[in-house]
User: Which sequence fits this backbone?
């Protein structure tokens, strides 16, 4: 094993962990702003249609939402622990924790799928006759519900793909206690997914 | 493992980046290269190809407007043409233009780095750029026809029209992604990879402008991303977020659109200002006047520029307080812009000016940008805005800023750095001829727009009242002169590439920034040894004094 000399510009092995962290944080800003645009729209329509948002929010299943929140928070813990494990050279534990994160992510999506399907089976989905016959505020609430949770779900999937790649790299020893910045980056992304959900959950399920 | 790979490749770092043979050769050696210089050239080639397409659409629009009523192209085609002209010019030419081409090529060299912080992501962003460009072009060919909404995609028409809006919008979304990645890359590069000794205020001004641009790219682009995505979802699933018939608010769309698209104007103009700040001191042989003020003004423009978006919507319905605040903020942006203009002029004052093509384009930039900027302020005034909103005055104004500013800034950069990039010299006389065609054609093309807009000619209209015809004729003739200038300009550069005089001199213009201290064309890793920076880069006067002293001592 060659130990990588640090902070010498003359070496050929280009690695700048601080730079990588900076890059990922900047990227996370852009993701926050992407969702920020949606939260902005949400807050404006909530302000304009308070009663209708209130009534529509009552129709969402708080229990499923709570369950999913717990799942996602736990998965954030497991990914954070997997980074700690790799820092302590415990590859096996790190791999197990990454797999657990993936399983929890999948569980979240399965729950979400059933939640969406229940609504869709009741005829509430964008463009459905039932939904279009309701008041504008309720149409907007459910429109935003599907778009925001859908986009969040997409981010869960992207996060899972990232973690799966990291899992492979860990197994191949490309991520180890000397070089774990990529796993850290994937972990940060996963926390972002988690944090967005932490805001989505009260906005759609709890404030009624 | 990496070390082993390196031993296999013939790693001769002293050859120029143009001759270097890496893992691949030929075309793959370019399109899979992570060398920032090669990526810069890739951007240059693709961007100029899209520019040619955009110019053709513009030419056709002007040709149609030679006559009122039904002429040459149908109204539907006309609508598509001005949409595509806008989309291509804005998303594929001006936004990536200076940062992606010259930023990629020169940012690492100017700060004394070997490459950008994330070379592979840099390559990815070019691929995204290409994909977005191809998507936009494909939308023309598919059934349904090209988008006809104007580049602003205003709701509700963009939800109702039967044309391929989704394609065009998705193209813009992908291009936004590309732009974000470039921004992240540049900001990180500037933070992490400056050469030893290069503090923030020893950094040249072009990197400074790229730094401000990078932040706007990072902070503003996601908003347009989500907005375009929402319109696409709206069209596919009838979600109702913007569609007024479902309770949505079209004005909200306009706000979100301009929250990005106004700062985007500064993504376009800031790097051009950076280029001008490089060129003026070199060709007047003087220290740049007010270095810190120019650096800070870039940040100030980026900051205030992010807060003025609603001035695009003064007539769309807004509270008086809102109008007042946005009008005030709009006037505030003029201050840092004017700081730059005054500093450039002050730099020229008493300089030993050499009239070479880069300086000519730079001076044209100052002249045209000032007209563009001042007409912009006219629109920032609330009462005047009502008179000229959505007239061709606006079209004239933003072409003065975008083409007269950024476009001429780009020509200036091309003529300034061309010999360094390719190791070839173009024909100076021909470059000057092209310049005069461009300058005269440009003013003949766009100044009549300001006048007839003031008289009430609406923008984007297919037909017009006969009394506007003289202005339209003048404008169209201007477009022919302008295009002649463009042809001479690019023909000159292409001829130079093939047969131009070979330049090996490191510093042909007498610049002081780091790109003039490396080989021409630059070697693969930019410098044989990472430079150590001891003094600022604009100390021409002081250096001249030293030279004189040395002469005396002899």
Assistant:
């Amino acid at each position: 094993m060659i130990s990588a000399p640090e902070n010498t510009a003359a070496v050929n092995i280009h690695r700048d962990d601080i730079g990588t962290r900076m890059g990922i944080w900047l990227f996370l800003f852009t993701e926050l702003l992407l969702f920020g645009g949606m939260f902005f729209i949400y807050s404006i329509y909530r302000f304009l249609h308070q009663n209708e948002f209130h009534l529509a929010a009552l129709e969402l299943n708080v229990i499923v939402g709570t369950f999913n929140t717990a799942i996602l928070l736990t998965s954030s813990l497991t990914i954070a622990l997997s980074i700690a494990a790799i820092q302590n050279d415990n590859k096996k534990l790190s791999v197990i924790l990454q797999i657990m994160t993936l399983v929890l992510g999948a569980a979240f999506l399965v729950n979400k799928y059933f939640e969406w399907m229940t609504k869709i089976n009741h005829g509430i989905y964008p463009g459905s006759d039932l939904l279009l016959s309701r008041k504008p505020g309720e149409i907007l609430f459910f429109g935003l519900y599907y778009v925001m949770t859908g986009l969040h779900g997409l981010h869960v999937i992207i996060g899972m793909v990232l973690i799966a790649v990291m899992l492979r790299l860990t197994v191949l020893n490309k991520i180890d206690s000397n070089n774990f910045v990529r796993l850290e980056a994937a972990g940060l992304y996963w926390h972002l997914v988690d944090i967005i959900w932490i805001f989505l959950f009260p906005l759609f399920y709890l404030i009624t | 493992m990496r070390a082993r790979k390196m031993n296999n490749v013939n790693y001769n770092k002293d050859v120029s980046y143009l001759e270097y043979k890496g893992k691949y050769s030929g075309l793959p050696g370019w399109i899979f290269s992570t060398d920032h210089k090669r990526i810069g050239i890739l951007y240059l080639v693709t961007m100029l190809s899209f520019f040619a397409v955009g110019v053709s659409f513009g030419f056709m629009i002007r040709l149609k407007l030679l006559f009122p009523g039904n002429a040459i192209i149908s109204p539907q085609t006309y609508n598509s043409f001005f949409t595509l002209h806008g989309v291509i010019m804005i998303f594929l030419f001006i936004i990536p233009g200076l940062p992606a081409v010259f930023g990629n090529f020169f940012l690492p060299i100017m700060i004394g780095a070997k490459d950008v912080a994330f070379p592979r992501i840099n390559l990815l962003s070019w691929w995204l750029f290409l994909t977005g460009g191809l998507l936009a072009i494909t939308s023309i060919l598919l059934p349904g026809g090209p988008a006809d909404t104007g580049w602003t995609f205003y709701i509700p028409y963009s939800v109702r029209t039967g044309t391929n809006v989704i394609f065009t919008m998705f193209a813009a979304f992908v291009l936004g992604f590309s732009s974000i990645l470039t921004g992240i890359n540049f900001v990180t590069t500037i933070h992490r990879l400056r050469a030893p000794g290069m503090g923030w205020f020893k950094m040249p001004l072009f990197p400074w402008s790229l730094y401000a641009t990078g932040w706007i790219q990072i902070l503003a682009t996601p908003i347009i991303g989500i907005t375009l995505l929402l319109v696409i979802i709206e069209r596919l699933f009838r979600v109702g977020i913007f569609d007024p018939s479902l309770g949505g608010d079209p004005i909200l769309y306009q706000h979100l659109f301009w929250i990005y698209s106004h700062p985007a104007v500064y993504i376009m103009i800031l790097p051009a200002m950076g280029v001008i700040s490089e060129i003026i001191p070199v060709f007047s042989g003087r220290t740049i006047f007010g270095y810190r003020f120019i650096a800070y003004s870039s940040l100030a423009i980026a900051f205030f520029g992010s807060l003025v978006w609603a001035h695009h919507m003064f007539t769309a319905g807004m509270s008086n307080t809102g109008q007042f605040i946005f009008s005030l903020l709009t006037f505030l942006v003029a201050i840092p812009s004017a700081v730059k203009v005054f500093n450039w002029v002050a730099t020229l004052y008493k300089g030993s000016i050499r009239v070479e093509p880069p300086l000519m384009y730079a001076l044209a930039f100052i002249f045209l940008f000032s007209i563009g900027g001042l007409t912009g302020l006219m629109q920032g005034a609330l009462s005047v805005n009502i008179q000229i909103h959505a007239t061709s005055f606006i079209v004239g104004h933003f072409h003065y800023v975008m083409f007269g500013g950024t476009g001429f800034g780009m020509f200036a950069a091309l003529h300034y750095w061309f010999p360094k990039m390719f190791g070839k010299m173009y024909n100076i006389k021909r470059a000057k001829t092209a310049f005069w065609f461009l300058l005269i054609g440009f003013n003949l093309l766009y100044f009549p727009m300001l006048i007839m807009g003031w008289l009430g000619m609406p923008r984007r209209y297919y037909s017009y009242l006969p009394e506007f015809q003289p202005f339209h004729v003048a404008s169209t003739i201007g477009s022919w002169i302008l295009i002649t200038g463009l042809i001479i300009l690019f023909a000159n550069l292409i001829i130079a590439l093939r047969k131009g005089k070979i330049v090996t001199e490191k510093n042909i213009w007498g610049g002081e920034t780091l790109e003039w201290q490396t080989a021409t064309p630059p070697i693969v890793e930019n410098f044989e040894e990472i430079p150590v920076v001891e003094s600022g880069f604009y100390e021409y006067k002081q250096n001249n004094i030293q030279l004189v002293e040395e002469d005396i001592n002899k």
Summary: Residues 1-12 of chain A have pLDDT under 50 and may be disordered.
